[in-house]
Amino acid sequence: IVDNVGTHLTGEVQCGNGDGRTVGSVGGDNCLSYYKSAMTEADFATAPVAVDQTPNDSLWIEGYTAYMQLKLSAGNVAHYGGRILFINHFLAHASLFNDTKISRLVLLMPHQLISRFIRDNTWHRSVLQIVGEPMAVRNLDSLADLPPTEPGVFVVPETADRVKPVCFRQAVLPGFLKARFFIPDSEIDGAPLDARGPPLEPSSAHLFRSKLYRFLDIAEPKPKRKIVYMKRKRRREFSHDSEEAMQKLLSSLCERHQFELVVPDFDVMTFKEQALSMHDASVAVGLHGANIVNAIMMPARAALVEIFPYMFTHDMYVDGASSGLWYANYTIVAGEEFSGL
Description:
The chain has helices spanning 28-42, 77-92, 111-118, 123-132, 185-189, 203-216, 240-257, 271-278, 319-322; strands at residues 2-5, 59-69, 102-109, 137-139, 152-157, 166-172, 226-230, 260-262, 283-287, 303-308, 326-331. By secondary structure, the protein is an alpha/beta fold. The strands form 2 sheets. A 6-stranded parallel sheet has the order 1-6-2-3-5-4. A 5-stranded parallel sheet has the order 8-7-9-10-11, covered by helices on one side. Mean pLDDT is 83; it is low at 1-30.
């Protein structure tokens, strides 16, 4: 139950238009359709209820709450990243949203995802801590346990148990940054983009990196002569022979140009270990997949080289998922789709 969604009544409003890669103001007539799509994205079980129709035993949560309901697909770090980094976008551009100050962030999710947020140093919990800084992350048993006035980041499992209605005095229903994790400032302020110049780091990407370095307790790094090869395992991986050929090629290039080659195994690394393997790299190379999400940990204006399988391309990681990286890609020209490449 939401008392006040947004801060507008008439005229020009900042509710976005959800169309492709654009953001910004749209006319009031279009806001209702955007509102309905946002409610669908938030996946509420029922329509909003008017304040005067709320049950007497309702729990009212004060201040502005960012409420996000995750689906099972958020178990994938790329899908989760597109959602949680929308909160980062919101915080980086609060002036576009009438300088709304978020009091708390609430994530409601299936039980199958909870372990990713309970254990320390997982990718999911760590990025949540980074985005939510300085608010602390807490795990609750149900929405009914939300403290009415206390700020924080609250992780809550879905439950079939009937609880008292929970009402948010004011709420932000975040969207989903599909196929990228940051939005270039040029799309927000309308400034022309010089395609000939170096990549520009979006304000939201700069905010994320600043918080990342504080989370890692390190100074802002200077890129090293270092290439990270993000080796992919299991689904959509190189064949044994191709893998050997790729690493031999990269080793030869590094030796010739005096670069260090690092081949991390993200599957057995904590989040901090993954981030520290990427944070000072000049170049990252990898097959298309969720493992390339870690390119957002690289310094601005580092370089990402993405390799696509046969008969497949995607723009998700262009410019490092719009994080301000140099970007190039190569598509394999023979083979079978998603088979041994």
